[in-house]
Design a protein that fits this description.
Elements (H helix, E strand, L loop, with lengths): L16 H4 L3 H7 L9 E4 L3 E4 L2 E5 L12 H14 L14 H14 L3 E5 L2 H12 L5 E5 L4 H14 L3 E4 L4 H9 L7 E6 L11 H10 L3 E5 L14 H5 L7 E5 L9 E5 L1 H10 L1 H4 L6 H16 L2 H20 L10 E5 L3 H13 L2 E2 L1 E3 L10 E5 L6 H17 L4
Parallel strand pairs: 3-12, 5-6, 5-7, 7-8, 8-9
Antiparallel strand pairs: 1-2, 2-3, 4-10, 9-10, 11-14, 13-14
Helix pairs in contact: 3-12, 4-12, 5-6, 13-15
The protein binds pyridoxal-5'-phosphate (PLP).
Pyridoxal-5'-phosphate binds next to α5.
């Protein structure tokens, strides 16, 4: 104990010590394969320039390829000319643009809900919707594989309010029911789930989940980040895909995928949206989405509604890659979304396959522990409508060549 330091308060080291210890990132860098933070120098959509080389993009969430659509780019540029580069304030005060109101109205109408509210990112949306809705004695039921932003919202509710948080096994409706049975019948309950799960691209069994919600008087919240523009009639999302629009209380999503921008929104009953507008600190105390981001999302929503062939092309592209990889012998589950997971179960193998594909000019995403549980390493290939036949052939040829070389197939 240092001289004069009260007992129990002796100096045990800096909180930064952990930063100087060997981290997971150091371990990965030491293997010579570090697949993260690769900078894009230019992007035409399906092809990007990375480290001076042209690379086929097979890892983006730009599902309909709208980030480079002429109408979307033009709308963003015009908005900068009209409103400048930032709204410079919260919606509550000086940050509301007519564009925000227009987008909220159009999103609500498209989704089939009474009202919508914009947030500055998808991550903030999940947090900003969940936290203000739960009270001390309300229960949140959340799928084990829900996105990190939902987990953050739940932990905030648990930390700040001591709200009970219950995580059920992934897409396991028997487990969910068992857990619903255990809580007081009169307690408020929210069931929150991704519509399409962001890592493996599987879909929630929403019909069963909504039946349970009805039986146990719970509200249903869906994160449609990977379903908006992908599933349902005209890309209206998971609830529409199941014909259960009225059974889902709140739908939230991001602009960073199909809507080719940055921001997020929640859609639902007018009174609930109005409540969030005045109670959600993630909404109230954060700068509103910029005019260019909002105008880009508005234009992307317009393209989504006027060029429905893009959704068909996206599904065609996903099917070509999924069946092509399955036929080669890769472990690829069946699916109906734009995410095609290649299961490898081994971190080193996943990193080697990633590097081989990158050297062949193909970019996909690699998921290893701790991002996913140990032993579940995988590559996430995600498709875009803007990929042409020649790109699909290059993706499949590269997977074949490297998979054989590494004896994966
Ligand atoms: C399911 C899901 N929800 C929320 C988000 C967060 O969205 P954003 O990137 O707009 O913050 C993501 C982003 O990857 C996601 O996959």
């Amino acid at each position: 104990m240092a001289h004069g330091t009260p007992e129990g308060l002796e100096y045990r080291g800096s909180i930064f010590d952990k930063c100087y210890a060997v981290t997971k990132a150091d371990q990965l860098r030491n293997t010579g394969i570090y697949p993260y933070f690769r900078a894009i120098q230019e992007s035409e959509g399906p092809e990007v320039i990375m480290e001076g080389r042209k690379i086929v993009m097979a890892g983006s969430n730009n599902y309909l390829g709208l980030t480079t659509h002429p109408q979307v780019k033009e709308a963003a540029i015009k908005a900068i000319e009209q409103y400048g580069t930032s709204s410079s304030g919260s919606r509550f005060l000086t940050g509301t643009l007519d564009l925000h109101n227009e987008l909220e109205m159009k999103l609500a109408k498209f989704i089939g809900k009474e009202a919508a509210l914009l947030f500055s990112t998808g991550y903030q949306t999940s947090q900003g919707v969940l936290f203000p809705l739960v009270g001390r004695s309300d229960y949140i039921f959340s799928d084990h594989e829900n996105h990190a932003s939902i987990v953050a919202g739940m932990l905030l509710a648990r930390g700040a309010l001591n709200a009970p948080v219950v995580r059920y096994h992934h897409n396991d409706m028997e487990d969910l029911e068992k857990r619903l049975q255990r809580v007081p019948a009169k307690a408020g309950k929210i069931i929150v789930t991704d519509g399409v799960f962001s890592t493996f691209g599987d879909i929630v069994p929403l019909d069963q989940l909504c039946s349970l919600a009805k039986k146990y008087h719970a509200q249903v919240l869906i994160d449609d980040a990977h379903s908006f523009g992908v599933l349902g009639e005209g890309g209206r999302g998971t609830a529409n895909h199941y014909g259960l629009n009225h059974e889902v209380d709140l739908v939230f999503s991001t602009f960073s995928k199909t809507l080719a921008s940055i921001g997020g929104f929640v859609a639902g009953e007018k009174r609930v949206i109005d409540y969030l507008k005045h109670e959600s600190s993630a909404f109230m105390f954060s700068c509103s989405p910029s005019a260019s981001a909002t105008a880009a999302a508005l234009a992307a929503l317009h393209v989504l509604q006027t060029e429905p062939e893009l959704i068909r092309k996206l599904h065609f592209n996903a099917k070509v890659i999924r069946t092509g990889l399955q036929q080669m012998g890769y472990d690829v589950p069946d699916g109906q979304t734009a995410i095609v997971p290649v299961l490898l179960y081994d971190d080193a193998k996943a990193c080697q396959l990633w590097q081989g594909l990158y050297d062949e000019g193909i970019f996909v995403n690699v998921f290893i522990a701790p991002a996913i549980p140990p032993g579940r390493a995988m590559l996430r290939t995600s498709l875009m409508a803007s990929l042409e036949g020649s790109h699909l052939s290059r993706i499949l040829e590269a997977y074949k060549k490297i998979g054989k070389r590494l004896r994966i197939i």
